[in-house]
């Protein structure tokens, strides 16, 4: 199986906010900052592994954000909210036959993270059934999810628009290490 890397967008690669202009308060204008070293980070990662964007945001909107920063070409495909919802409804993975590694600023214990991996469809079978009958089974599921998270997830600190941020440089060795372990 191939290892592929999924990258989150908001607060992982960019920080996008509604523009603070009182004359455009209807939310049509946005300010978006690209995280420092994003170009170098994406170039290095996309050279080594297939790269996909996975965002809980709207696909078309986030594609515009990527184009605005000229980083859209690094990704083989952009998966947005609608794609995740579709995959969940069909119960099919976004990309079949892969070992995913997800880089996201989200707390892995959160519902959103779980949903994403459900959508990717690469959770172990025991985790796919979220309606446990007993507390013991729930504990087992949690332990399984913890194991899965250890292997398939890496949390990055939130960007928040800090111009001195260096997290993309700092996290790169850990990404390569995890991806290499998956590749065996
Ligand atoms: Mg995020």
Tell me the layout of helices and strands.
Blueprint: E1 2-7, E2 14-18, E3 30-34, H1 38-48, E4 51-54, H2 59-68, E5 77-79, H3 81-90, E6 98-104, H4 111-120, H5 125-128, H6 135-152, E7 153-155, H7 167-183
Helix pairs in contact: 3-4
The structure holds magnesium ion.
Magnesium ion binds next to loops.
Describe the structure.
By secondary structure, the chain is an alpha/beta fold. It has a single domain (2-183), classed as 3-Layer(aba) Sandwich (Rossmann fold). The chain has helices at residues 38-48, 59-68, 81-90, 111-120, 125-128, 135-152, 167-183, and strands at residues 2-7, 14-18, 30-34, 51-54, 77-79, 98-104, 153-155. Strands 5-4-1-6-7 form a five-stranded parallel β-sheet. A two-stranded antiparallel sheet has the order 2-3. Helix 3 crosses helix 4. The longest helix is centred in the C-terminal third of the chain and has 18 residues, at 135-152. The protein is globular, with a radius of gyration of 17 Å. The protein binds magnesium ion (MG). Magnesium ion (MG) binds at residues 8, 10-12, 104-106.
Task: Report a brief summary of the structure.
The protein is α/β, with parallel strands linked by helices.
What's the structural domain tally?
1
Number of DSSP helical runs: 7
Mean pLDDT over the residues: 87
Our Rg estimate from Cα atoms comes to 17 Å
Strand fraction equals 15-25%
CATH superfamily: HAD superfamily/HAD-like
Main sheet makeup:
5 strands, parallel
Instruction: Assign the CATH architecture.
Output: 3-Layer(aba) Sandwich
- Which structural class fits the helix and strand makeup? alpha/beta
Terminus-to-terminus distance: 9 Å
List the strand order in the largest sheet.
Answer: 5-4-1-6-7
SSE series: EEEHEHEHEHHHEH
């Amino acid at each position: 199986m191939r290892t592929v890397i999924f990258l989150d967008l908001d607060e992982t690669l960019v920080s996008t906010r509604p523009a603070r202009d009182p004359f455009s308060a209807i939310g049509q204008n946005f300010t978006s900052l690209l995280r420092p070293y994003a170009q170098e980070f994406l170039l290095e990662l996309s050279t080594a592994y297939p790269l996909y964007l996975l965002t809980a945001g709207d696909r078309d909107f986030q594609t515009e954000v990527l184009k605005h920063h000229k980083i859209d070409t690094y990704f083989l495909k952009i998966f947005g909210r609608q794609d995740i919802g579709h995959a969940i409804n069909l119960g099919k993975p976004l990309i079949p036959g892969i070992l995913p590694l997800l880089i996201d600023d989200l707390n892995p214990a959160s519902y959103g993270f779980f949903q994403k991996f459900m959508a990717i469809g690469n959770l172990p079978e025991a985790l796919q059934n979220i309606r446990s009958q007993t507390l013991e089974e729930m504990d087992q599921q949690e332990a399984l999810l913890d194991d899965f998270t250890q292997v398939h997830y890496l949390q990055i600190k939130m960007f928040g628009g800090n111009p001195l941020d260096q997290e993309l440089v700092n996290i790169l060795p850990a990404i390569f290490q995890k991806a290499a372990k998956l590749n065996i």
